[in-house]
């Protein structure tokens, strides 16, 4: 019995990786120059951003055209799935580093600094209680409470996870109206989450005196919530692109991994937020 082997698609050599490398070099070097108040820093930074946007539109546009013309088979689809899985794993490790720093500070560093000889000889009067700015003198601040905007944002993100899943079910059963409506609702919920997060930051600075330089609590709070907000922004952009493609008639019940990848990423930011809400806001 003979077996027909599927041909694996091999793309032509691309110019976009070198453009991406140049963009990241300009982006990073421009940011450093800007921080050191070099006059050309902002220009180099934003030129890097422009080149990066050109690369993203060009490269992903090429991939979309190749996909829509039927050049990708099961093997390519499988390689995409593995790639997205490893990418999300790398993001898990990224956040694990920040959660690990918070855990170490709360469980080991702060109690150690406020106990025994450390407290008596080095930091007299330091109370090892969380939240704290640390043993160094710092302006008083009010920690961000869990029950308010953070709890509302938790409900919003959980709802967005449900709407993107509802959209996926609509695509699988061929209900394109449900698919597009679910995507639209997910994007709107993501934008609402970001709007509330911006308001929360303004409230922290203006009313709570909670800033990035408010010791260990301020730095871990803004690093974790800020990077999560960045990932929500990226996820919302991805889903907006998926909505545009859905309106253009892309995706079928059998062939839609680009949407699935964006949905995986969105569920990932949902899970990170749940953990973040518990250990940063609640406990």
TrEMBL record:
EC number of this enzyme: 7.1.1.9
UniProt GO cellular component terms: plasma membrane
PROSITE patterns the record matches: COX3 (PS50253)
BP GO annotations: aerobic electron transport chain
InterPro entries: Cyt_c/ubiquinol_Oxase_su3 (IPR024791), Cyt_c_oxase_su3_dom (IPR033945), Cyt_c_oxidase-like_su3 (IPR000298), Cyt_c_oxidase_su3-like_sf (IPR035973), Cyt_c_oxidase_su3_a-hlx (IPR013833)
Keyword set includes tRNA processing: no
Taxonomic superkingdom: Bacteria
Membrane topology term: Multi-pass membrane protein
Domain Heme-copper oxidase subunit III family profile: from-to ranges: 4-283
Main location per the UniProt record: membrane
Parts of the chain that traverse the membrane: 16-36, 42-64, 85-105, 147-169, 181-199, 219-243, 264-282
Keyword Transmembrane helix appears in the UniProt entry: yes
Pfam families: COX3
Alphabetic keyword roster: Membrane, Translocase, Transmembrane, Transmembrane helix
Compartment(s) where it occurs, according to its Swiss-Prot or TrEMBL record: Cell membrane; Membrane
GO molecular function, one term: cytochrome-c oxidase activity
Family according to the record: Belongs to the cytochrome c oxidase subunit 3 family.
Name assigned to this protein: cytochrome-c oxidase
Protein source organism: Pseudothauera rhizosphaerae
Phylogenetic lineage: Bacteria, Pseudomonadati, Pseudomonadota, Betaproteobacteria, Rhodocyclales
């Amino acid at each position: 019995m003979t077996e027909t082997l599927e041909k694996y698609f091999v793309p032509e050599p691309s110019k976009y990786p070198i453009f991406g490398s140049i963009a990241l070099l300009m982006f990073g070097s421009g940011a450093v120059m800007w921080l050191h108040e070099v006059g050309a820093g902002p220009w180099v930074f934003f030129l890097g951003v422009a080149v990066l946007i050109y690369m993203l539109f060009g490269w992903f546009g090429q991939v979309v055209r190749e996909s829509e013309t039927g050049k990708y088979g099961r093997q390519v689809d499988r390689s995409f799935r593995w790639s997205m899985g490893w990418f999300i794993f790398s993001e898990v490790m990224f956040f694990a580093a920040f959660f690990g720093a918070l855990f170490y500070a709360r469980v080991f560093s702060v109690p150690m600094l406020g106990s025994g000889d450390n407290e008596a000889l080095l930091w007299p009067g330091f109370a090892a209680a969380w939240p704290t700015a640390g043993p160094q003198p710092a302006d008083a601040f009010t920690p961000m409470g869990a029950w308010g905007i953070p709890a509302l944002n938790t409900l919003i993100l959980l709802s967005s996870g449900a709407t993107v899943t509802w959209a996926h079910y609509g695509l699988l059963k061929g209900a394109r109206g449900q698919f597009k409506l679910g995507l639209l609702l997910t994007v709107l919920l993501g934008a609402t989450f970001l709007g509330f997060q911006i308001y929360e930051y303004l409230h922290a600075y203006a009313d709570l005196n909670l800033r990035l330089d408010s010791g260990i609590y301020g730095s871990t709070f803004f690093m974790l919530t800020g990077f999560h907000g960045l990932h929500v922004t990226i996820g919302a952009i991805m889903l907006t692109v998926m909505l545009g493609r859905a309106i253009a008639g892309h995706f079928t019940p059998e062939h839609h991994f680009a949407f699935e990848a964006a949905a995986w990423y969105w569920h990932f930011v949902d899970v990170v937020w749940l953990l973040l809400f518990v250990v940063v806001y609640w406990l």
